[in-house]
């Protein structure tokens, strides 16, 4: 029953998309300046139906309707309700439906919120966006239909992948998707702007907030994914430079470059084509990321049964998008003649963009290079953290310095009056850095430079803040985001430098000592849970100097179905540090291998990212108030 | 000049898309054809009862050796087991089983339940030796001759076709 309902709703959406395109096209030819009312209505119905369609799928997951293949493969009647619902978008088919929803809702919202812009531009955006929607609807209907039915109906579902049953991972995909798919709307707008020659700076108002919204969600999505990796994957890191992670980082660089260069376009009416190119690149990268993750070409070693038709469809879609955009761009491209003063805000923002492009190209190369060598030379290589660290880290130093100075530079022409103050700030940063070394320990030259530049950015932002408060005219959103980025780099740096890691084989009752800590394995307990058994260790971590103790309880879990062993880290978070402990058994012995890590300032890394996003939301709020 | 840039940009994208397409249509299992006719240079695995090692010299004594990597916890290993039993009847071919990351008790039970096709039985408790032999996942099997040249490598469970191929190769 739900299967039929879902399919009908999907078909209805296809028809609605076609009729929106048809009506918009018809309305383009009329001379009146208002958009026909029925287009709004169709668009509203379209959004409503696709939401109902999604709720139909959620309902199927909640009532465990195993007549749907997707539900059968990805759910289980014993799953907690929360994970049944989260399971809706935790699989390929459901996540594509989520794509379609975001495409549709953004299409509707863009239509109703941009009344001040030319009719032709709005209608063309609607047409392009609906073409994208159609592309995805066809993919869903004919290749990855979440409503495919199964007969006879199985009595129980298959999926109960323990590692995915996690609150962070449940909200991770929707956040990331709003970012990924949200970029579609300014892709469509860019195409529409090219076709309709809408090159005035007012074009920037139509896309500004959409870029910020998608950027904020993308950042949050990446954050939640990192937090999940930190406490679930059990080695204490939160970023692997893994191709799937990189796929989410690539559009992020493009978005960040985009909303910075948009400031210039808005102010000075230059960089139009660069803005357009970035709009196009962002969504193209999002789709490329989806292609890389979904087609299975990245994790080739153990995929015995991946479905090549899926990848083929996305690739076809991607090629049409890329070549369509290139064709249009080449046709409309005019050389922009702008003379930039070296000391101007424009130049500094352009520098920001070059940095972003540098990061983007580095990560892109690292991600697709192994695919290339594999396809062309049969050589399997993998590009790991050393590549990214050596290339990106030194550049971050200069980037941070520019990030501190850039916002203070004036438009068009600038005289560096207050160069002295930067000198003092730099001196203070070095001083603070050496204080850290003096009180704690020394570290590499590169780390020194990174910390100094991070502190430099933080201090300049704080001085901006005090100055701004005095003049009562401040750009709070920017100051918060920039300062928080400085804090983020600082905390990651300090965390890397001061992490203590110890590895021991330990027996029940035994105590190990290092520095001013002692670890004792006090107790081992075997417990039976619903779908797994667990060996729970109880370890006492004692700080001898402060006479403070913490009890950590790492687990070894043995799941029944499928039979898998997982190691659950035990983490004690406090304001200044995290204790991170994992335990694994050693075959045929009474010893357990424990890995203890003391990771300072962990919490503040997450807080910094949240503050960066807060700055973004604040900007959206201020923009909305101004309009 | 501008046209040249346009063409280059177009070609770059075309190239990227083509490579994506090639990777998509390629066999996603890794290709083992380049291993064939290579010599095994290092080989030393401990035998199952931990009384000695099997080395290159032991392999040289046999006309043909099939090195099979298996474990009791590996379901596809059960699938290929009947094929191994059939192969074990061949006089020219010796089968060396490498028990991969397994428990002794369970491995023994596996063989007593399903039959023991192995002429030699070795084990690799932490999986290190197997990985150095280029094993990605199990089951995998390597067919070598008395000169220690790799004649064929089989990824995944042996099928009836693989059986015929082996019979053909050792004729």
Describe this structure in words.
The complex is a heterodimer of chains A (627) and B (171). Chain A is an alpha+beta fold and 627 residues long. Chain A has 17 helices and 10 strands. In chain A, strand 6 and strand 7 form a beta hairpin. In chain A, helix 12 (345-377) packs antiparallel against helix 13. The longest helix of chain A has 33 residues, at 345-377. Chain B is of the alpha/beta class. Chain B is elongated and about 75 Å long. The longest helix of chain B has 24 residues, at 2-25. In chain B, strands 2-1-5-4-3-6-7 form a 7-stranded mixed beta sheet.
Total count of strands of chain A = 10
CATH topology label of chain B? Glutaredoxin
User: By CATH's scheme, which homologous superfamily of chain B applies?
Assistant: Glutaredoxin
Count of helical regions of chain B: 6
CATH architecture of chain B: 3-Layer(aba) Sandwich
DSSP helix count of chain A? 17
Distance between the termini of chain A: 47 Å
Helix content of chain B: 25-40%
Judged by helices, strands and strand pairing, the structural class of chain B is alpha/beta
Can you count the beta strands of chain B?
7
User: Order of helices and strands of chain B, N to C?
Assistant: HEEHEHEHEHEEH
| Largest interface (CB < 8 Å) | A-B, 31 and 26 residues
Strand order of the biggest β-sheet of chain B: 2-1-5-4-3-6-7
Low-confidence stretches of chain B: none
- Average pLDDT metric of chain B: 82
- Helical content of chain A stands at 55-70%
C-alpha Rg of chain B, in Å? Answer: 21 Å
Describe the sheet with the most strands of chain B.
7 strands, mixed
* Alpha-beta content class of chain A: alpha+beta
């Amino acid at each position: 029953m739900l299967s039929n309902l879902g399919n009908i709703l999907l078909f209805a959406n296809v028809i609605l998309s076609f009729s929106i395109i048809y009506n918009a096209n018809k309305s383009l030819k009329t001379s009146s300046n208002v958009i026909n009312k029925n287009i709004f209505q169709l668009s509203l119905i379209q959004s409503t139906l696709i939401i109902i369609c999604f709720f139909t799928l959620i309902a199927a997951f909640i009532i465990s309707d195993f007549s749907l293949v997707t539900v059968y493969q990805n759910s289980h009647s014993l799953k907690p309700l929360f994970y049944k619902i989260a399971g809706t978008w935790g699989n390929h088919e459901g996540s594509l439906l989520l794509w379609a929803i975001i495409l549709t809702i953004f299409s509707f919202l863009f239509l109703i919120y941009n009344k001040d812009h030319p009719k032709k531009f709005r209608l063309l955006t609607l047409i392009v966006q609906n073409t994208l929607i159609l592309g995805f609807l066809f993919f869903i209907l004919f290749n990855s239909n979440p409503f495919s039915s199964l007969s006879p109906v199985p009595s129980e579902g298959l999926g109960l992948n323990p590692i995915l049953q996690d609150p962070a991972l449940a909200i991770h995909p929707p956040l990331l998707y709003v970012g990924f798919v949200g970029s579609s709307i300014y892709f469509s707008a860019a195409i529409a702007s090219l076709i309709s020659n809408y090159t005035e700076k007012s074009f920037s108002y139509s896309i500004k907030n959409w870029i910020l919204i998608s950027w904020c969600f993308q950042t949050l999505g990446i954050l939640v994914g990192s937090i999940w990796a930190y406490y679930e994957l059990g080695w204490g890191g939160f970023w692997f430079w893994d191709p799937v992670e990189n796929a989410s980082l690539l559009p992020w660089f493009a978005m960040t470059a985009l909303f910075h260069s948009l400031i210039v376009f808005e102010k000075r009416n230059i960089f139009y084509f660069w803005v357009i190119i970035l709009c196009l690149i962002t969504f193209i990268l999002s789709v490329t990321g989806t292609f890389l993750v979904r087609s299975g070409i990245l994790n080739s070693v153990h995929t015995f049964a991946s479905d090549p038709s899926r990848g083929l469809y996305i690739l076809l879609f991607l090629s049409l998008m890329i070549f369509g955009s290139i064709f249009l761009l080449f046709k409309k491209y005019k050389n922009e003649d702008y003379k930039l003063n070296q000391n101007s805000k424009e130049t500094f923002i352009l520098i920001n963009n070059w940095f972003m492009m540098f990061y983007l190209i580095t990560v892109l190369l690292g991600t697709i290079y192994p695919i290339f060598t594999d396809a062309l030379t049969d050589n399997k290589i993998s590009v790991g953290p050393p590549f990214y660290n050596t290339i990106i880290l030194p550049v971050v130093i200069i980037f941070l310095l520019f990030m501190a100075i850039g916002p203070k530079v004036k438009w068009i022409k600038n005289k560096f009056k207050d160069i002295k103050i930067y000198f003092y700030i730099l001196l203070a940063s070095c001083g603070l850095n050496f204080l850290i070394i003096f009180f704690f320990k020394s570290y590499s030259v590169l780390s020194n430079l990174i910390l100094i530049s991070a502190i430099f950015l933080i201090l300049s932002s704080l001085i901006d803040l005090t100055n701004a408060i005095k003049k009562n005219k401040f750009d709070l959103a920017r100051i918060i985001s920039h300062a928080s980025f400085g804090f983020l780099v600082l905390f990651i740096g300090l965390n890397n430098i001061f992490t203590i890691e110890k590895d021991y084989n330990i027996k029940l009752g035994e105590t190990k000592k290092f520095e001013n800590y002692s670890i004792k394995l006090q107790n081992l307990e075997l417990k039976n849970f619903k779908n797994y058994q667990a060996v729970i260790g109880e370890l006492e971590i004692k700080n001898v100097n402060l006479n403070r103790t913490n009890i950590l309880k790492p687990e070894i879990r043995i799941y029944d179905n499928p039979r898998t062993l997982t190691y659950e880290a035990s983490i004690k978070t406090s304001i200044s540090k995290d204790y991170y402990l994992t335990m694994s058994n050693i075959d045929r012995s009474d010893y357990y291998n424990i890995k203890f890590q003391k990771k300072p300032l962990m919490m503040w890394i997450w807080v910094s990212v949240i503050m960066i996003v807060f700055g973004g939301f604040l900007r959206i709020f201020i923009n909305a108030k101004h309009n | 000049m501008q046209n040249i840039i346009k063409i280059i940009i177009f070609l770059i994208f075309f190239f990227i898309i083509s490579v994506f397409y090639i990777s998509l249509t390629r066999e996603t299992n890794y290709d083992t054809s380049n291993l064939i006719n290579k010599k095994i240079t290092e080989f030393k695995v401990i035998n199952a009862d931990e009384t000695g090692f099997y080395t290159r010299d032991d392999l040289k004594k046999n006309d043909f050796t099939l090195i099979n990597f298996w474990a009791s916890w590996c379901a596809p290993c059960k699938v290929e087991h009947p094929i191994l039993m059939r192969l074990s009847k061949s006089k020219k071919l010796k089968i060396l089983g490498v028990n991969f990351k397994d428990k002794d008790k369970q491995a023994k039970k596996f063989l007593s339940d399903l039959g023991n096709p192995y002429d030699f039985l070795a084990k690799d408790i932490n999986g290190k030796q197997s990985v150095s032999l280029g094993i990605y996942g199990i089951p995998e099997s390597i067919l070598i001759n008395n000169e220690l040249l790799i004649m064929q490598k089989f990824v995944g469970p042996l099928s009836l076709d693989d059986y015929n191929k082996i019979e053909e190769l050792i004729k």
